[in-house]
Amino acid sequence: MRSARPLDLHLTLDRLGRGPYDPTFRRTASGDLWRTTRMPSGPAACRLVQAGPRDVVAHAWGPGADEALDALPDLLGERDDDAGFVPPPQLRDVHRRATGLRVPRTGRVLEALVPAILEQRVQAVAAWRSWAWLLRRHGERAPGPAGEAGMLVVPDAAGWAGVPTWDWHRANVDPGRARTVVAAARVARRLEECGAVLDAAGAEAAHARLRVVPGVGVWTAAEVAQRALGDADAVSVGDFHLAKAVGWALVGERVDDERMLELLAPYAPHRYRVVRLLEVSGRARAPRRGPRLSIQDHRRN
C-alpha cells in the first residue's frame, strides 16, 4: 500500500499488541510486523513490512486473507484525519518527529474488547499473561508461516462464550471480568456494528453501544474505540496512570480525571492523539511516589 502522506507502521500499530508474548502480534528483529485476526470470512495472518516512508508491503494467509488485505488502509490509519491538529507546546517536537503516527482502525470490535476487559482493574502484565494463557488454550493455530512460528488466532464469539469457568480461574481472571467477556461474546454481532454506528451517528453513539454490555464502562469503551474504531478523541478516563501522566506533562503536576479532561479539552477531537504523542515521547508516567502494586492472583481465592 502506498499512502499519500507519511506512515510509520510501528508507531501506528504497536498498541495493538498485548505485551511481549502476545501470540497474535509479533515484531521481528528485521522490523517486520506479523499480526493475526479473525475476519468475518475466517482467520487471517498478515506480514507487514515498511518499504518506504509512505509504503507498506503486506502479505496475508488464510480464509480471511483477502478481506484482511482489503481492510489494510483502515488498519494503517488512512481514514485518520489530523487536519487542524496543533499539539501542546510540550509535545510539538515529538509531533514533528512522529509524522507517520496514525490512529488505526482494525474494525474488529470483539478482538479489541476481550483484552481490554482483561485489563480492567489489574496490572497490565497480569492481564497480558491471562490473554496469552486463554489463547493458548482456546485460540486457533494461525494460517501460513505465522502458524508455523507459533502464532495463534483469537477464538470467535462462540469460542469466548464457551470458555469454562475453571479455565477463567486457571487464567487468573476473576468471575466479574469473565462474566463481562461472556456477555460481550453473546452480543458480538451487535458490537461489531459499532464502526457503522460511529460513521452514521458519531463516536458518542458507538461508545454508548459498547457500554450496553454489563461491566463495560467508559475506560473499556475508549480502549476499544482507540483500536477498533479509529477514534482519535477517545480518552481512557479512569486509567490508573493516565491523568497523572497528562498532568505532569502539560502542567508539571499530578491531576485527577476531571482536571485531565479540562487540560485535553482544547485539543478535541484529537485528545487521544495527544495521549499517543505523550506515550511516544516516553513521558507517559509521572514520577513514582510509592511502591509498586503487587500482582493479584485470583487463583488463590
TrEMBL record:
Gene3D superfamilies: Hypothetical protein, domain 2. SUPFAM superfamilies: DNA-glycosylase. Keywords: DNA damage, DNA repair. The keyword DNA-binding does not apply. This is DNA-3-methyladenine glycosylase 2 family protein. It comes from Cellulosimicrobium composti. The lineage of its organism: Bacteria, Bacillati, Actinomycetota, Actinomycetes, Micrococcales.
